[in-house]
Amino acid sequence: MTGVHTLSCGARSLDLTRAVVMGVLNVTPDSFSDGGRYFDTGRALDHALQMVAEGATIIDIGGESTRPGAAQVSIDEEIRRVIPVIRALRARTDAYLSVDTSKPEVMRAAVEAGADIINDVRALQVPGALAAAASTDAAVCLMHMQGEPATMQINPQYVHVVSEVQQFLQDRVLACNQAGIVRERLLLDPGIGFGKRLEHNVQLLAHLGELSELGLPLLIGVSRKSMLGALLDRPAEQRLFGAVALATSSVLAGAKVIRTHDVAATRDVVKTAQSLLDAGYRIRE
Questions:
Q1: Which of 36, 116, 183, 224 is 20 to 30 Å from the Cα of 234, by its Cα?
Q2: CA-CA distance, 14 to 18, in Å (whole number)?
Q3: pLDDT of 96 above 60
């Protein structure tokens, strides 16, 4: 299967022959790692521009926390949180803007405001989401999640996690294609930490090559996640070293977008890992 190396984002194209960094911008009061810090539009704008200066190619803007047990947010409230930030950023930067949402109404409003990418943890499975995304020219990131954020970590079960996640993503790609969303508009995310125990996350990260066989660019998000807490016995704000280690291994395994709260450090390790790939690095069988 021919791989996609250029992501179509409406009138723009994102070159993914080399890995890039996506900076996380939570405009929520209850994110697990930085909840409330950037809830104010002015602070959110300043932080986003700082991440761009540190090397973020994409800014991912989310108005509803997806941490386990997080409260649901209404459509109107989510729009109120994210649209002013997207508009303000679109006027100030050429960075690619992503909206982290599962709501069709928010997708449409965000793209109209200037978003280039729809990043959906539910992979366009909410009624109306597939049609909403198809009606835009934005790129779409499809993520795997077992269950719902409120309950996903209670008791996730898999027989073969890698093949099950691969099959799910393949099925969602087919659904997108049938709805008119071409492959060149798609990113895939195995959903590290979303309805998965530590061993599931480790297996997925150790076998990214199998997910790459789908021929679409992979997005990996491990920044500050609970799997690092379990591995390192450290709180969210002390998980940077573990996160950049996994970012490095992910890029070497073929990931093209690394989603992170810590842009400067992640940019350095992504650039370093990419230099090894450019020099012909290959994982020895």
A1: 36
A2: 10
A3: yes
275 close to 267: Cβ distance less than 8 angstroms: no
Provide the sign of the torsion angle of the four alpha carbons 36, 265, 145, 1, taken in this order: positive
pTM for the predicted model, two decimal places: 0.94
- Predicted confidence band of residue 284 (pLDDT cuts 50, 70, 90): low
Catalytic residue of the set 103, 225, 239, 256: 225
259 is catalytic: yes
State how far the alpha carbon of 39 is from the alpha carbons of 115, 196, 231, in Å. Answer: 19, 28, 30
Tokens linked to 257: 């977008």
Closest CA to 49 of 19, 85, 79, 76: 85
Domain ranges of the chain: 6-221+254-260
Q: Cα angle at 66 between 98 and 238, to 5 degrees?
A: 90
Is 271 annotated as catalytic?
no
Fold of 6-221+254-260: TIM Barrel (3.20.20)
Residue type, 163: S
State the catalytic residue, choosing from 122, 172, 239, 259. 259
pLDDT higher than threshold 60 for residue 218: yes
**Chain Cα centroid distance, residue 15:** 17
Mean pLDDT of 68-81: 87
